[in-house]
TrEMBL record, chain A:
Location of the ABC transporter domain: 11-261
The organism's taxonomic lineage, starting at the top: unclassified sequences, metagenomes, ecological metagenomes
Subcellular location: Cell membrane
Membrane topology (UniProt): Peripheral membrane protein
Gene3D superfamilies, per the entry: P-loop containing nucleotide triphosphate hydrolases
PANTHER family according to UniProt: DIPEPTIDE TRANSPORT ATP-BINDING PROTEIN DPPD, OLIGOPEPTIDE TRANSPORT ATP-BINDING PROTEIN APPD
Annotated protein name in UniProt: Unannotated protein
Predominant subcellular localization, coarse grouping: membrane
Gene Ontology biological process terms from the UniProt entry: peptide transport
GO cellular component: plasma membrane
From TrEMBL, chain B:
Keywords carried by this UniProt record: ATP-binding, Nucleotide-binding, Transport
Source taxonomy: unclassified sequences, metagenomes, ecological metagenomes
UniProt cross-references to NCBIfam families, sorted A to Z: oligo_HPY
Pfam families hit by this protein: ABC_tran, oligo_HPY
Gene Ontology MF terms: ATP binding; ATP hydrolysis activity
Family indicated by similarity: Belongs to the ABC transporter superfamily.
Renumbered residue ranges of the record's region Disordered: 271-290
SUPFAM superfamilies: P-loop containing nucleoside triphosphate hydrolases
Domain named ABC transporter: residues: 16-261
Annotated protein name in UniProt: Unannotated protein
Length: 361, 329
């Protein structure tokens, strides 16, 4: 790679959009996303299923290759544009400059190849080492991800390993070539909570040790809270809020973030605490609403929200949000009062005034 | 952990009492998977019992064995004075109307070819009133109770609904015969957090309205705390700890419960994750579980005694039972 200026961000995503051509018409899964990642940062990307977080992370690496996908915008890695690169050029970036760890550790390993063969193949391809050296490095990598008896593990098949072990192997492969950026897409969703804890600790340690940056994609706000410095919240294909983790959890600006934070059950709450629920469900992306995509479910929504798409704006504390009526402003308190007195069902559900069981159509 | 014992059972007045429930599956070569080994639980009317544990700990098998699906290898399941394990198949079918189940995957647990009103009416066809209009009247009331518009959904089929709505339909189907106990097996694990909150609130509302008793099986400790009055922690087919949800989360006494709670990511950035509370090693094979306490191979405080002697559930505080030789304070 080119030597880049020290102040060039590691990753700079500008106006990235991904559209799938479906039988029902074009479906924009990622819509105008901007993101800047500095060296050494961990970015948490949260959103519910269908919010576009996986498509976004795959689009950055041109992994959505298929005739019905259109990706526009710009993705600069160390100042170099990735979206115009050919598949062949990308092959020297995948796994070498930018690595990815996927959700399901079973299907991301080849079931008919021994673990060692897969690790060695990767090392030899990118680093051009001889068989023997590659094997030694492979064993060293397995040891560094805390796999017991790494020599013996090289000769087993993936099905002989537990889920946590398989994810460790995937991480070892991702770390093999000294990548500068690791994209971890729901790396612990398929795992038990104790194994999740181990894997997250491992990722955290390796990231610091190797001075890597990381994009951690997850639906779990708990995972984000402990592991990311910055958080980007995605809803219906757009980034709706970007802030440093402490600010986001302490003072969310976007009603969707607030609703997400308040709808998760927490262990520090007493049993039978009534959860705030978000009524309805995410919009159909093939037929998106005219205004803010969250407006139909939002407790604060006003007429403007239903009709106009809010731009992303930067606040005094450095956080960014896409909302006409950011939380914490007098306008948002007024909007809430107005909706409460008008009996807007979405607002009542958020505030537990009436029964929250009825689903808003 | 990995203990047995019945010290925690409260006897009188329980709707459901399970004693020494054991489920073993033969796997050939004379070996057996010890899925559930001597679990005892009881449920008071209107109570919610949460069962937590990692995958493979036998929590789902326990739930299914209570319903006699499949029949347990040994042990007794007494529902309102009737021992379900002693019933023949025909009598068991009749008893099953009092005990219903909600499954994890809401979409695959509904027949895709049937209309919603027929899915929900099916239990009534077999056990309910013979009159069709009467049946549909009950279906309509039940669908309204779970927050669905009976006119809008009745004629549609499962694929037209989201996961959360399908879970509401499954709940309606479980409710329609007015059961005494509902066993929920991971009812919200397949749902997004915003929908999860809707379903958890719905279950709480229905509990109040119909006075049902719930067994809530889940791996998510925060969810279990939210819905449960009492929580049981399982490991490798055995019970570790039983206590009220407040006590269990505030003062876990079993080393496994401690590690489990320490692993849960907390949605609070000011609280750094505890990198020390890490569970070492892998789950031992359930075909050859460790002797003595089944958790000893991974327990940070295990001694020789743990390998020789199986700990029994003992009371460490009022209503707080632990199966460990060295309960933590």
């Amino acid at each position: 790679m080119n030597t880049s200026l020290p102040d060039t961000p590691l990753l700079e995503v500008e106006n990235l959009s991904t559209t799938f051509m479906t039988p029902r018409g074009p479906l924009t899964a990622v819509n105008g996303v901007n993101l800047t990642l500095q060296k050494g940062q961990t970015y948490g990307l949260v959103g519910e299923s269908g919010s576009g977080k996986t498509v976004f992370s795959r689009s950055m690496l041109q992994l959505n290759v298929s005739s019905n996908v259109q990706t526009t915008g710009s993705v600069k890695f160390q100042g170099e544009e990735l979206l115009t690169k050919t598949r062949k050029e990308m092959q020297s970036i995948w796994g070498k400059e930018i690595s990815m760890v996927f959700q399901d550790p079973m299907t991301s390993l080849n079931p008919v190849m021994k673990v060692g063969t897969q690790v060695i193949e990767h090392i030899r391809h990118h680093l051009g080492l001889g068989k023997k050296e590659a094997r030694e490095l492979g064993i060293e990598l397995l040891r560094s991800v805390q796999i017991p008896e790494p020599e013996a593990r090289m000769d087993v098949y993936p099905h002989e390993c537990s889920g946590g072990m398989r994810q460790r192997i995937c991480i070892a492969i991702a770390l093999a070539c000294g990548s500068k950026l690791l994209i971890a897409d729901e790396p612990t969703t398929a795992l038990d909570v104790t194994v999740q804890h181990q894997i997250l600790n491992l990722l955290d340690f390796q990231r610091r040790d190797r001075d890597m940056s990381m994009v951690l994609v997850t639906h779990d706000l708990g995972v984000i809270a402990g592991r990311a410095d910055h958080v980007a919240v995605m809803y219906a294909g757009r980034l709706v809020e970007v802030a440093d983790t402490k600010t986001l959890f302490a003072a969310p600006k976007m009603p969707y973030t607030e609703a997400l934070l308040r709808s998760i059950p927490r262990m520090d709450q007493p049993a039978h605490t009534r959860l705030l629920s978000i009524s309805g469900r995410p919009p159909d992306l093939a037929n998106p609403p005219k205004g803010c995509a969250f407006a139909p479910r939002c407790a604060y929504a006003q007429e403007q929200c239903e009709n106009e798409q809010p731009p992303i704006t930067t606040h005094a504390d450095g956080s960014q949000s896409a909302c006409w009526i950011p939380l914490g402003t007098p306008a948002s308190r007024d909007a809430l009062q107005k909706n409460l007195s008008a009996g807007r069902p979405q607002t009542l559900a958020m505030h537990n005034v009436a029964s929250t069981t009825s689903e808003v159509k | 952990m990995a203990g047995t014992g019945k010290a925690h059972l409260r006897g009188e007045g329980a709707v459901l009492t399970v004693e020494d429930l054991t489920v073993e599956f033969p796997v050939g070569g004379g070996r057996k998977v010890h899925a559930v080994s001597g679990i005892s639980i009881d449920l008071m009317p209107g109570e919610t019992l949460g069962i937590v544990g990692e995958s493979g700990c036998g929590k789902s098998t326990t739930g299914r064995a209570i319903l006699q699906l499949p029949r347990p290898t040994s042990g007794s399941v007494v529902l309102d004075g009737v021992d379900l394990t002693k019933l023949n198949d025909a009598d068991m079918r009749e008893q099953r109307t009092d005990i219903q189940m909600i499954f994890q995957d809401p979409i695959s647990s509904l027949n895709p070819r049937r209309r919603i009103k027929d899915v929900v009416a099916e239990p009534l066809r077999v056990w309910g009133p013979k009159d069709k209009d009467e049946q549909y009247k009950i279906v309509r009331e039940t669908l309204e109770a779970v927050g669905l518009d009976a006119d809008l959904v009745g004629e549609r089929r499962p694929h037209e609904f989201s996961g959360g709505q399908c879970q509401r339909i499954s709940i309606a189907r479980a409710l329609v015969l007015n059961p005494k106990v509902i066993i929920c097996d991971e009812p919200v694990s397949a749902l997004d957090v915003s929908v999860q909150a809707q379903i958890l609130n719905l279950l709480e509302d229905l509990k109040k309205k119909y006075g049902i008793t719930l067994i809530f099986i889940a791996h998510d400790l925060a969810v279990v705390k939210n819905v449960s009055d009492r929580v049981a922690v399982m490991y490798l087919g055995k019970m570790c700890e039983v206590a009220t949800s407040e006590d269990l989360y505030a003062k876990p006494a079993h080393p496994y419960t401690k590690l489990l709670l320490g692993s849960v990511p907390v949605a609070d950035p000011t609280q750094a994750p505890d990198t020390n509370a890490e569970l070492s090693g892998d789950l031992p094979s359930p075909t050859a579980p460790p002797s003595g306490c089944r958790f000893r191979t991974r327990c940070p405080i295990a001694t020789d005694r743990c390998a020789q002697e199986e700990p029994q559930l003992q009371e460490v505080a009022v209503g707080h039972y632990v199966a460990c030789h060295y309960p933590q304070q």
